[in-house]
Amino acid sequence: MAEDSATGGESEGTRVARFDWRTGAVVVVVAVTVLIGMMVLAEGTEEKTPRPRPSEPALTELDFAVWGTTEEIAAYQSVVDTYNAKSLDTNVTISSWPTVAAMLTDVRSGRAKPDLYLLPRSELAETIAEKRNLPLLDLVAEREIPIGDDFAREAVEAFSVDNDLQCMPYTVSPMVIYYNTKLVDFDAMAAEDLPVPKPDHLAWNFAEFRAAAEFASRPRLNTRGVHIDPTLRGLAPFIYSGGGQVFNEADEPTSLTLGEDGSVDALRQTLELLRDPRLTLSTKQLAQRPALKWFERGKLGMIAGFRNLTPQLRASGVDFDVMPMPNLGSAQTVGDLNGICLSRGKASRTGAAANFLSYLVEDDAVGTLAETGYIEPAKRTVALSDQFLQPDLMPEHAVVFTNAVRSIVPSPLMQQGAELRALVDPDIEDLLTTPFFKDLRESLLAIDEKSRSLLDPDYEPSDAPSEGSSDGTSPSGTASSSASSSATDDRERD
User: How far apart are CA 173 and CA 155, in angstroms?
Assistant: First the structure.
C-alpha cells in the first residue's frame, strides 16, 4: 500500500507538472495571438482615423484707394469683387472718395493707408519725393505684363522716372474739342464753300477751327462759337501746336517761356479768335453759368475737354461729336493721365498687391472701367475696342481720343504745379478778357518773370514797378482796371 501510495503520488505530481507546462504554452500562444491582433487592430484604427489638417493660411487683406463718380466707383468695385471670388490668398477692399483732392488729403495725413491707389500724374513728383510709391519695373517684369506692346508709349513714358516705372499707367485722355453737331454742321459749311476738315475727323487746321466758330455764332439764336478755359493749361495746346514752348526746360523748369518767339506767334493767332466778343461767351454769360452748361443748353458751338465729359453730355441731351485740338503747325495737345501706384510695405503684402495690379490691367478688368464712358484706357487693346469706342453712342468719332494720345505733350514733373497755376492764371485770364493791352509780348514776358519767382531758386526780382505805370497799364502790360471795366461793360452788352 505504501508503494502504491508512493507511485500514485509521483504520477499525480507528474500530471500536475505536465498540466502547468501545457497551460503555460497555451497562455504564451494566446498572449502572442492577442498581441498581434491588437497591433493589427491598432494599425487599422490609425489608418482609419483622419489626420489633423494643417491650418489654412490667413488671407492677405489689401486696400485699394480710388476716386471718381458713383459709376466709376461701382465699376472698380465690380472688378474687385471678381478678383476676390477667384483669389485663394488675397482679399481686396475699396476705399473711395468723390475727388482726388479729398483722397490725397487723407493719404498725406495718414488717415488713409492704401496698398494701391489711383494717382494723377500731376501728383507724381510729390509722391516720389515723399517716398509714398514703390517702383514697379521689376514687379511688372516678374509678372510678364507687356507694357511695351499693349500700353500707350506716351503713358508709359509719363510715369517713368529715374529709369524705372513709378506707377502703372491706367487711364489717359487727351484734350479734344467737343462740338455741337447742330451748330457746327460741316456738311452745311462745305455747301457754303467754307473750309472744313476731312470726314475722318483726324485733324483740322486753325482756319477750319475759326470757320466753325464763326458758323456756330448766330446772333438771332444768341449762340456763341467757342470757349477755351482762360488758363495756362487751356492755352498750352495752341502754344505747342504753333511751335512754342510753355516751359524753358522739360525736366526742371525755372520759368515759363510765353514771351519767346514761337509762343508769342502762336498766342497772337489764338487770341485773335478767343478775344473776339462775337464768337466767345461774354463775362456776363460766364457769371450766369459755366461754359459747359451753355454747351449743354445748345448755346455754345465748341468747348475743349477730356473724356470724362462724355457721360455728362450724353445725359444732357445735346447732340455732339469730337475733333482733335486745332493744328497751328503740328498736332499737339495736353492730357489727363492717371496711374496705379503701390505703397511701400512688407514684402508679403507687396507681392499680393503686385498680383492684384497684374489683374487690374487685364483686358476684362480695364474694359469694365472703360464701359462707364468716363475713362480712356492707357491699354491700347481696350482703347481700340468697342468697350471704349461704344459705336452706338455719342460721340460718333470716339477714335479721336485714341489717336490724339500720341500728340500729348506731358507737363514737367514738379511739385509747384498748383501754385504756378494760382500765380499766373489770373494774368492769363486777363489776356483773354481785357479789351486791349499795350503789347502782347510785353504782357507775356511779365508772366514769364512772375513764374520765375516760384520756379527759379536763384531768382532775383527785376526792377519792374509793382504798381500800375503812368500810361494806364498794369505791370503785365494789360489795361488798367478802370479801362478794363469800361470796355468789359461794352463787351457784355454785345
Answer: 10
Give the tens place of pLDDT for each residue, 262-314: 999 999 999 999 999 999 999 999 999 999 999 999 999 999 999 999 999 99
Chosen CATH of 176-333+416-493 out of 3.40.190.10, 3.50.50.60, 1.10.3470.10, 3.40.50.300:
3.40.190.10
Burial class (CB within 10 angstroms; exposed 0-12, middle 13-18, buried 19+) of 266:
buried
pLDDT tens-digit map of 358-403: 999 999 999 999 999 999 999 999 999 999 999 999 999 999 999 9
With 50 as the cut, is the pLDDT of residue 10 above it? no
Choose among 118, 117, 170: nearest CA to 344: 117
Residue 193 three-state SS: coil
Domain ranges of the chain: 60-172+336-407, 176-333+416-493
* Architecture of the domain whose range is 60-172+336-407: 3-Layer(aba) Sandwich (3.40)
Count each helix (H run) and each strand (E run) in the chain, helices first.
22, 11
Residues in CB range of 378: below 8 A, 6 or more apart: 151, 152, 155, 156, 169, 170, 171, 172, 337
Sign of the dihedral defined by the CA atoms of residues 153, 158, 140, 70, in that order: negative
Residue 209's identity, in one-letter code, is F
Task: Kindly calculate the radius of gyration of the chain based on its CA atoms and give it in whole angstroms.
Answer: 38
H-assigned helices in 49-87 = 70-86
Report the pLDDT value the prediction gives residue 52, as an integer from 0 to 100. Answer: 52
Residue whose cell numbers read 453737331: 181
List the strands of the sheet with 168-174, edge to edge.
Answer: 90-97, 60-67, 116-120, 335-342, 168-174
Residue 290 burial by Cβ neighbours in a 10 Å radius (0-12, 13-18, 19+):
middle
Domains 60-172+336-407 and 176-333+416-493 share a fold: yes
What pTM was estimated for this model as a whole? 0.83
pLDDT of residue 26: 40
